[in-house]
């Protein structure tokens, strides 16, 4: 059944497609770039179609190449995982997760002790760069946790949280807020589409005229800086109920008029289809679901 399949060429194609570079694929497979180019040409001749557009200093998949990569990558990943499960002495499981610095610092890391206790054989590496990872191209990342309004039709996903934004402050600042207009703390969002006019929306719903009275506004680049400012008593912060949950549980922050909220986006855990069956990934998905249920913010 499989005798005629050009397996060497298919492996070269998968690597070159994922990395979008013949040179990088050659380095990954320990062969020369010329060998990779030859294997791709052989595969294109065998199929009778072009898989790549050769552009100055780079390559780009054709529509047919993209279709082949989507199915081939998942198939090879499943084979690799099946083979790994058959090893007599399996190495310690490893897992690489990409997420935002704020989610890692404010929600994930405080809870990771429970994951390590339940799965001592899994090593977790966190990647907290702000750049969006293309899971179809970067095989070094097992899964991501993303905050977005978008749907991810080509990825396996688990919706984690029903998020909203509310106002929080130290107990002293919340007590003073009913007497005078407070200093307002906000986040300078990298993606304005997610939450463009947060304080204005909240004040309109709450009937507060703080913005008209020119209350001071303090802006930070990251949510964890804004929360630390609020904990230190520098004002009231408009924050995600997900990211503020640990600070509220410990009493460092309390809500101000908790019934007044503004809708946010959603957090989802995502991976390439097929990778969710890899034991470390499966264990982490299950743990995330349990933690989401414990937090009381499940979708």
UniProtKB/TrEMBL annotation:
Keyword DNA-binding: yes
Similarity-based family: Belongs to the LysR transcriptional regulatory family.
GO molecular function terms attached to this record: DNA-binding transcription factor activity; sequence-specific DNA binding
Keyword Ligase: no
GO biological process per UniProt: DNA-templated transcription; positive regulation of biosynthetic process
Keyword field: Activator, DNA-binding, Transcription, Transcription regulation
Protein's name according to its UniProt entry: LysR family transcriptional regulator
Domain (HTH lysR-type): residue spans on this chain: 5-62
């Amino acid at each position: 059944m499989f005798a005629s399949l050009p397996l060497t060429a298919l492996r070269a194609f998968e690597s070159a497609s994922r990395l979008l570079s013949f040179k990088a694929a050659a380095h990954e497979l320990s062969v020369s770039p010329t060998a990779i180019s030859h294997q791709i040409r052989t595969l294109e001749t065998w199929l009778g179609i072009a898989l790549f557009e050769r552009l100055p200093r780079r390559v780009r998949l054709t529509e047919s190449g993209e279709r082949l990569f989507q199915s081939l990558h998942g198939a090879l990943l499943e084979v690799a995982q099946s083979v790994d499960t058959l090893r007599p002495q399996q190495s310690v499981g490893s897992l690489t997760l990409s997420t935002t610095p704020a989610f890692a610092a404010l929600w994930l890391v405080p809870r990771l002790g429970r994951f390590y206790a339940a799965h001592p054989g899994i090593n977790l590496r966190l990647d907290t760069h702000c750049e969006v990872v293309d899971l179809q191209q970067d095989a070094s990342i097992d899964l991501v946790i993303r905050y977005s309004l978008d749907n991810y039709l080509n990825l396996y996903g688990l919706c984690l949280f029903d998020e909203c934004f509310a106002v929080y402050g130290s107990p002293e600042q919340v007590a003073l807020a009913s007497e005078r207009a407070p200093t307002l703390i906000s986040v300078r969002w990298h993606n304005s589409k997610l939450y463009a006019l947060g304080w204005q929306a909240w004040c309109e719903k709450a009937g507060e005229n703080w913005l008209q009275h020119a209350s001071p506004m303090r802006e930070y680049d990251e949510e964890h800086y804004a929360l630390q400012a609020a904990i230190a008593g520098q004002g009231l912060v408009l924050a995600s109920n997900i990211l503020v949950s640990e600070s509220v549980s410990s009493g460092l922050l309390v809500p101000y008029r908790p019934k007044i909220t503004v809708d946010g986006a959603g957090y989802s855990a995502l991976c390439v289809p097929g990778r969710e069956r890899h034991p470390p990934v499966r264990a982490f998905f299950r743990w995330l679901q349990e933690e989401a249920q414990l937090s009381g913010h499940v979708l």
